Structure prediction request, 990 residues.
Amino acid sequence: MKIEIPKSALLEALQAVQNVVSIRTTLPILSNVLIQAEKGRICLTTTDLDVSIQCRVDAKVLKGGATTLPARRLSSIVRELPSADIEIEVDDKDTAQVHCGSSFYKIMGLSEEEFPPISKAEGKFCYTLDQGAFREMLRKTAYAASTDETRFVLNGVFLSFKDNKLVMVATDGRRLALVEHEVEFPAEAEVDLILPSKVAAELVHTLGDNGELRIFTKDNRVMFEFGEVVISSKLIEGTYPNYRQVIPAQCEERVAVERETLLSALKRVSLVTTEKATAAHLTFGKNQLVVSMTAPDVGEARETIPIKYTGKELHVAFNPEYMIDPLKNLNNDEIYVELTDDLSPGVIKCDIPFLYVLMPMRVS
Amino acid sequence: MSHANIRVLPENVVNKIAAGEVVERPASVLKELMENALDAGASRIEVEIAAGGRKLVAISDNGRGMDRDNALLSIERHATSKILDVDDIEHINTLGFRGEALAAIASVSRFRLTTARQGDVSGTEITLSGGKIQDVREIGGPAGTRLEVRDLFFNVPARRKFLRTQQTELTHIRNTFTFQALAYPTVGMSLTVDGRVMHQLAPGGAQAIRDRVRDLFGEDYLRQLREVAFEGNGVKVRGFAGLPAFSRADRTEQYLFVNGRATGAPLLGYAIRAGYHSLLPRDRHAVMVLFIEVDPGSVDVNVHPTKKEVRFRQPSEVRDGVIAALQGAFAMTTTPDTMPPGISGAEFAAAPSRGSALPDLQLAIDDLPPSRIFRYPRIPIQTTDGSPPSAMHQPFGPGNAPPRPAGVGPPAPTESESGVRPQAADVPDADAPWSWCRVLGQVGALYVVLEIEDGMVLMDPHAAHERVLYERFMNRFTEGKILSQSLLVPDTVELNPTDADRVRRHTDILRRMGIGIADFGGDSFVIDALPAFLVSVQPKKLLAEIVRELEVGGAGRARGKLNESALIQASCKAAVKSRDALTLDEIEQLVIDLAGTRMPYTCPHGRPTLIYMSFHELNKKFGREH
Prediction:
C-alpha cells in the first residue's frame, strides 16, 4: 500500500475515529486503526468490538492495499508533522514508512487480517434525519440515562420509531427526559432500539450541524451514516421500561420561567456545597420564585426570580443537578414548570416536543 | 413429710415428657407429620396451618393409610412400623423410626387421625384429647391419612407460654415446609396458612430439584445458583450452590440433606467453607441446597432426638466430596450469563485473569495509566497551613514527576486545593493522615496503592467509601435532616417471611433514614424513595443488606433498641457494593473525602481502610537502614 495525503485531511480523519480506541485493552489490534486504500480514497476504521467508527477521506492512492497502525501514536505523530503532504508506504510485513518533508518515521503495524470484521451500513429500512436535529435530540435526553451498571437497560437512550415519529427517552429512575421528532418511514419499519450512552456521546461529538443522517439497524446493531463517517454499535438488549406511566397526566400549577435566569440561579446556589446529595428548595409565591439551598457546615444561599404566578403557594425540593441538566441543554428562552405538590413529580416543558419529569426530594 | 419414693411414671406422663423432646413448637409437629406422610409413600401432601400452628396443624396425604388396629397402635409410644429390632437401626431408610412422635403429639393436643387404606370399604377416625382416646369410629373417605393437631399444648400451660408470636412460629413452620419440599421434589405439596395458599408445588419431573427451587424461591433466586454434581468414594453430592456475590450474613439459607434427611453436621459447615475457599469473605455464607448421599450404614442419624445432626463414619470422604463438588461448580466463576450484556467481549475476556484471588471484591479503576504510573501530580488532600509538602523523603520527588498529559487523569491540584475541601481547616493537625498523596496504581483488582509524604499506603476503596458514606449519613441523621430522593417508579421487593417480619418491625427507623418503604401486603414492600446519599443503590439490594443486619443484630440486642447506626452501616455497605468500577477521579475524591472523616482508618464495621508503610520501614526491609 502506498498513499499520499495532505496532513490536515489525514489528521482530521484520524481524530474522527480515534475516540473509540481504548488505551487499556487486552487485544493489541484494538489499539490500531485499520487503513484501507482504494481508488482515490482511504478508509480509516477503529473499533472496541462494541462500537466502530469508519471515516473515508480522499487521497492519492499510488498502490492499493490495507494495514493497521497504532491509532493514537499515528495521530500524535501526524499532529506534530509540518503542514505538507504525507506519504505512507507499507511493506508486506505491515511496517509503515512515513515521509513528510524532511521527517521520516518507521512505524510497526499489525496485519489487517487480525482486525475484527466490521458490519456494513445496511438494514432493511433506512431512517433519514437531519444531523443537527438528531444531535439536538441526543443532547436533550442522553444526560438523564443511568450510569448504574446493574440496570443496564437504562444505560442508554431509548429510540422508538413509531407513527412517523422518533421518540427519544432516557431515564435513571429519578428523572426522565423525552423528546420527539417527525420522521418519515413506512409503517412496517417501526422499531425500538436502546442506544448505549457511549455511542450517544460519540454521536453528539461527531455529528454536524446539518446534512443528512441515515440510520440503519440489523441484527441488534445500529449504524449511523453521515458525511464520510459511519458509526456502528451494538444495541443494549432488553426491554425498556414503560416510560409513559411515569408521565403525570395532569398538574395543578403551570409556571412560565425564564430558562437562563433559573439556570444561573440554580448554579449559583449550588456553590454553597460540594456535596452531591443536596436539595435546592423552590418556593413559588405571588409573582416570585425563591430558589434556596442550605449547607450544614457552610451557610445558605437564596435567589429570588420574578415570575408571573398567582396560584397557590408551592414549596418543592429537587436535586439541583437534575434541574440544571435539562436547562443547560435546552435553547428556549422560556420553559414551563408544572407542579402539583411537594411529593408529586415535577415536569419541565417548553415550546418544542420536549418533556422532563423529575421526582422531588423530601426531608424526613 | 415428703416420701420421695421412686416409681414408674404413668404412661401419659411419659408421653408428655417425650413430647418435650420431640415437640418443641408447631413446626416440630409439622416435621414429624410430614415425615410420617412421606414414609407412608404419599405423592401428594397438603398442609394447613391456622394461627401460626397454635390453633391447627393439619396434614393430608394420599399414602398407604392404616387399618383400624394399626391406627390405634400408631398412637402408642414406641409403636412404629419402621423398624423391627435393634439391627434395623443400622440401616435406616425411613425418616422417622423412634415411634414416639404421634403418641407424644397426641398427648399435648386435641388430636384427630382419619385414615383409610386403598381399596378398603371404610376408614377409621380416632379422636384424642390430651392423649386420652375420646372416640374411635368408622368413617368413609379417600385412601390416605389426615392428621389434625389442634390447640397444641392446651394441657401444658408451661410450654404454651414458651411459644413465640404467631409470626415467628409461622416462620419456623415455613422453614420446615421448605426443607421437606426440597428433600422431596417429586412429591406434590401445598401449604395453606389461615386459608391463604402460600405454596402450591407441583410434583417434579425430570428437573425436579431445579423446578422445586424455582417454585419455592423464584426465578431470580435460581439464577444466582450454580448446579453442583459430584460422585466418588461412595459419596454423591448434588444440588445448587449460590454464587459468591449472592452470599448471606448467616447460614439460614443453607439447606443441607444427608440421604434425603434435612440435617446438619459441623463437618459439612467446614466443608462448605473450604469449598468456597477465598471466594467469600469470612463473615459471609453461601446460599445452597445440597443433597449428600452416602451408604445408610455409614451415617448415624440417631445422635439427636430431633435428628438435627448426623455423624458420618467416613468423615473425610464426605468432606472431600462436598469440597470437590463446590469447586467443580465454581471452576468457571464467570459464566457468560452472569455478565450484564453491556460488557464487551474484550472486558469479558480480561475479567477472569484479573485478580482471580478476589473474585467477589473485584473493582476496576477504568482509566489507570497503562504503564508509566508516576505521571500523576500529587493530590494535596490537606493543607492546614498552605505549606508545600516537604521533599526530603521522596524518592520520586515532585520535581521528577513529569507533567501529566493533557486531557487524561485527575483534576489539577489547584482545583482540589481551592474548592473541594472547605472543611480541611476543621481537622486538627494531629489527625491528618498525610498532607498529600497520589495514586500509583491498583493491585489485586481491588486495593489502591498511594504514595504519601513519608511512605506508602494501601487503601481498600470499598471500606473507605463505606466510611465516607457512613459518616455523612450519620451526621445528617443525627441532625434529623435526611434528604430522600423519590423514585419515578416505585420498586416492589418481595422478602421471605422471616425477613419481612423483621423489616415490618423496623419500618419507622427505615423511614427516618429516608427510605420510603411501605408494606404492600403479604411479604412484599414498596420502596418509593431512597436516601439521597445512596443514589445508585438498588432498593432490593439495600433491603437485603438491611435485613441481614437486622437478623444479626436483632438476636443480641433488646427489641426496639436496634440502633440506627447499624442500619445506616448496612445501607452504606449496600451502596458501596453496587459500584464495582471507579474512575481515577473518583478514587482521588475518595481519598479526599476519607481524609475529612472522623475515623478514616477503619470502615464502620471495624475493618481497616488503609494500611501504611513508612519509608523508614521500607528502607529497613531493603537493608538501607537499621
Remarks:
- Chain B touches chain A at residues 340-342, 344-346, 349-350, 367-370, 419-420, 422-423, 426, 472, 475-476, 479, 481-489, 511-514, 516, 529, 531-533, 535-536, 538, 578, 580-581 (CB under 8 Å).
